[in-house]
Amino acid sequence: MAEQVEIRSKDGSFQKLLKYDDRYYVPNFVGNVKDHLAAIDVMEVREDDTFILTYPKSGTHWTFTLVSMLRTGTTIYRGSPTFLDYTDMETLDKLPSPRVLATHLTFDFMPKQVKEGKGKVITIFRNPKDVLSSLFTFLTKLDHPDFLSRYHFKWEGLLEFFMEGETYCGSWFDYIQNWDKVMAEHRGNNVMYLIYEDMIQDLRSNVQKLAMFLGVSFGPDYLDTVTKKCTFLNMVTEATKAAAPSEQWKEVTKNKTLPIYRKGEVGDWKNYFTVAQNEYFDKVYNEKMENSSFDFRFE
Ligand code: A3P
Fold first, then answer.
1. Residue with the nearest Cα to atom 15 of ligand 1?
2. Dihedral over alpha carbons 131, 137, 139, 145 (to 10 degrees)
3. 247 confidence band (pLDDT: 50, 70, 90)
4. How far is the CA of 235 from the centre of ligand 1 (A)?
5. Distance from residue 133's CA to the centre of ligand 1 (Å)
6. What are 193's strand-pairing partners?
7. Which atom, in ligand 1's list, is nearest to the CA of 62?
8. 3-state DSSP call for residue 91?
9. Inside any domain, residue 296
């Protein structure tokens, strides 16, 4: 059973989270956490299911939008994905195929059938300094009483939580180490790895790779269109149109716009970190990432 915990930092930042089996979860995780994790474990997976696994702010919406366009053959903007973490099994079971589901859970928590090779998993990684800067902006845009009573973040405090692994999806460093292990041990060919910074540099070739991985056979014209539709500017435009899908994130911000899209750049962290904070971050990063196969670009 999950317990409620309140974590505070020296600068007065605080967050009220759920803790279960030594991991943190957001309060809107389904039920008591334990039962939903058990239900995910035995979930009936469909051959054409796609699971997008991310640490928050690493490009979940971007990947979801690309995959949806490639899975369905239509370039409609669909807003935010359905999350495995926040959606009960009955609702998930009723979703029409092809399902494109997102989650901030790690691969160990995926359904057994996925670990055995059924369905497809796509994960996107992003350098942690931009992840943290993006997370800070996102969290401080939330303005609903439910959020304000549970979370309050100043930059210094969030940095402290992030380095201690005390955020709603746990430690970014543990998340990456977990993937290093999966890369070494998972024997199926149903997992694809994307890098945010590579996508920024060359989206078109990543769209091509995604299409091949998903086994869809669209011609170059459609892949060109998907690439254009999924640029940062185009996604922002689509998200701000009156006809954009309504979703809870819009309702809980000050200006009622989707808080997901900010700058979509590599290196904006420089506008957040002080020199001392950056040196401290680098020291911890170098220690924790010493044996990792990941080599992130920060600019
Ligand atoms: P920034 O806050 O740095 O702009 P997630 O979907 O995992 O919550 O990630 C959100 C981050 O992905 C935000 O980063 C958002 O702008 C960025 N993003 C979303 N769509 C993008 C796109 N088409 N191109 C580049 N970045 C994108």
1. 261
2. -170
3. confident
4. 10
5. 11
6. 123
7. 20
8. helix
9. no
**CATH number, domain containing residue 120:** 3.40.50.300
Tell me how far apart the alpha carbons of residues 88 and 289 are, in angstroms, rounded to a whole number: 35
Residue 242 clears pLDDT 80, i.e. is over it: no
Mean pLDDT value across the chain = 95
Mutate to test the pocket of ligand 1, among 83, 103, 229, 232 (most ligand atoms within 8 A of CB): 232
Residue 160 is assigned to a structural domain of this protein: yes
Domains of the chain: total: 1
Query: Phi, psi at residue 248, to the nearest 5°?
Result: -60, -35
Q: What is the DSSP string of 20-41?
A: ETTEEE-TTSSTTSHHHHHHHH
Per annotation, catalytic residue among 36, 61, 104, 152: 104
pLDDT value at residue 271:
98
Q: Are strands 23-25 and 14-20 parallel, antiparallel or unpaired?
A: antiparallel
Please give the model's pTM, rounded to 2 decimal places.
0.97
**Protein residue with least CA distance to atom 18, ligand 1:** 264
- Ligand 1 site residues (CB inside 6 A) read 54, 56-62, 130, 134, 137, 230-232, 235, 260-264, 268
For residue 275, how far is its CA from the centre of ligand 1 (angstroms)?
Answer: 25
Domain that holds residue 100: 3-288
Say whether 46 sits in a helix, a strand or coil: coil
pLDDT (0 to 100) of residue 78:
94
Does residue 293 lie within any of the structural domains?
no
Is 104 an active-site residue? yes
Q: Is residue 294 part of a domain?
A: no
- The two most distant CA atoms of the chain are separated, in Å, by 55
